[in-house]
Structure formats: structure tokens, C-alpha cells
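Weekly puzzle thread! Below is a chain. First person to post its structure in C-alpha cell form gets bragging rights.
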Amino acid sequence: MWQQIKIYVRSDGAEILEQKLLEAGAISISYLDAKDQPIFATEPGDMALWQSTVVLSLFEGSRDLAYLLRDLSSDPSIANADKLKISIIQDQNWQAKWMNDFEPIKFGKKLWICPSWHSPPDPSATNIILDPGLAFGSGTHTTTSLCLKWLDQHTTRGSEVIDYGCGSGVLAIAAALLGAEIVHAVDHDQQAIIATTANSVKNAIAKGIIKTYLPTAMPKVKADILLANILAQPLIDLAENFSKKLKPEGRIVLSGFLENQLDPITKLYNRWFIMDSPNIEKEWVLLTGTRRV
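Winning reply:
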């Protein structure tokens, strides 16, 4: 048996609250969005919190938390101090519960992501076998979904593709399974390189189709398609570099940023690309274009 306290807190009070909970014996602390508010980091490694954040703290069942509730009830950073209470969580098969939370997801007409413990709902479709892991990109985030739907609707057969910021490798694997001749998967995080390589093997991608690199090791290429599901500032910093990696009339596919960041990115990329109308979903953007001749 475990005890859980659910606390609504302003983001500026979260760090002090976390320290208080740890000192009181919390064995785990999780942060959740209290009001469905999209957030973004300005650069990799930033930790941004929602203005209104839910903190879930877990304690052993035998610990007396009455004193902690009294202390929390007088904390000015807590929004619902009068509703603080302890919830009892019974022991269960946590691994089975976690696995049940991940079901196969369909993107467009023929593309699926399936956890390895599920049978593909449509064996004749293009099925990516992918388990949630440390590297970003399991298909559940809106920006990854937008990119996968774009790949489902546009042919990659025989193409040379760049997946810049490959994370788990999901976009690189999708491009390869949909017929790309070669995919250059690039990420600054070594964990992403490891994950992409492992997931390529899991999906039986033929050796040599997906090549992985840290950015400094990427060779000079002229690709047909460049996918970049990364943050707004790197997209701005890399715009000219991306233009040099694409053939004339090559396609660029950008995501990972919010609608309020769209204008400066569009204006910048217009120097080298004929940009399409953006596709916006839940305040996240997919922006595509064609390399000018």
C-alpha cells in the first residue's frame, strides 16, 4: 500500500515544494499539467513548467503524513490547500498497468505505431514496432503525430531523407519502412543515437538504410526530404544549414514549435523555400515547404 498527495501549485513554487516533500520522505515526485497549457523549452535541456502545475507525491503506506498536510495547508504557493488529502494506492502489477496504457496508434491511412507487446491491428499496414523509452518520440506527442501523418500522405520511395533530431528514430524508421532508399538520422544526444539504432534493428530495417550521426559527424549530403521535429530556436539557427542539405525542389518538414512562434520561422525559411500553409493542431505547428530552384 502507498499514500499519494496531489497538490496544485504555481510553477514558481514547485522547486521549494519538491524539496519539502523529499525531506518529508517522498519516494517519487511527478509533475503534470493542471490546465492543458502547451509549453516549450528555448533550448535542449531546459526544464519548463506550466503556470499551474499538479505535483503528485508518493509515500510509503506506513508513514504518518498528518504533520505534512498541516504544513502544506499554510503554504501560499499551493492553490487548493483546503482540498489537500491523502489517497491510498494499493499494490498492483505496475509493469502490466504501464504496458496497458500504450495501445497501437494509427497515423493517416496506412501507418501505425505498435508497442512490441501488442499484435498489429492491421498486419497489412506499415507497422512501426516502438516501445516508450528514454529518447523522445513514441508518437503520442502532437508534433510527432503531425510528422507521421505527413509521411503517410507523401511518398518517400527511393528518396534520400534526413531526420534531424531523430530522438527514438520513429520518423527515420517510418521513412525507411515507406520506401526511403537511405535515411540520415541525426541527434546531438548519444542516447537518441543508441535508441534509433536499436529501434531500427527491432523493425528489421536492412543494414545501411538508416545511418546515425551526431551533428558534427554528419557528411555533406543533398537529400530529397528533410524532417526536423525540434525546438523553435534550433530551427531558426539551422535554417540556412538545412537549405544546403536539400536538392532543388526538395521538401522540408518542420515541427516542434507553437503557433505563436510561426511567423518568424516562416519568414526566415521563405528565403530558401516556397512555404506551404501551416497545419496547426492543439497549438502545435507542422510547417512544410519546397526548396527554391
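Puzzle host: Confirmed. Bonus trivia for everyone else. The longest strand covers residues 246-258.
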